[in-house]
Protein: TetR/AcrR family transcriptional regulator
Amino acid sequence: MTKTDQVPGTRRKGSQTRADIQEAALSLFTERGYDATSMREIAEQLGITKAALYYHFDSKEAVIRSLFTDHLRALDELLDWAAEQPHSPQLASELLGRWLTQSGQRGLKTMRFVAANHTALKSAVPPGKGGAMERIDQATRIILGPDAPLQDQLRVRMALLSMHSTVLAAQGTKAGNADILTAAIRAATLLVSDLVPVPETPIVD
Structure:
């Protein structure tokens, strides 16, 4: 990631600085490893002072926690929207498509970090209730309805997890983000093509 262009004499908005820090940290953690990356290096990557960095995040652990918090918040907003809509095949398709789109954006980069930094993740984000699987369960009920057969539920849950599964499968290969995204979308579509209309999915750059 290159340093963010900035007009002399101006400052980034706080929310943009926070997002830039998350992006730079995530790239460095994935490329170099979590333990091998320092807060100073994150600041240097962005061309900001350590004081500016610590204003937003007091540690590397805080950066990682914020990534997961933001990702879960985005899923909650999606699920809140879906829960207010009447159940229909079109809703099921749109929810799945939007879920894959979110997973293919910041979620994909976060999952690649997770795959490369399991040990660091355990200390930075302790396991607990209210995680991604709870959201997957809620999304499955919205997509299929409350009384769907177990086998159908499992297939939809696998489709919702397709991005994560493909990131794990890509370990040790030369697959880039676009390769992972394409394979994950294809896998999700194959899993539920007879249950849910084919969703609109993100364009691979």
Notes: The two ends are 17 Å apart (CA to CA). Residues 14-56 form a domain with the Arc Repressor Mutant, subunit A fold (CATH 1.10.10.60). Confidence is low (pLDDT under 50) at residues 1-12. The first helix runs from residue 14 to 32.
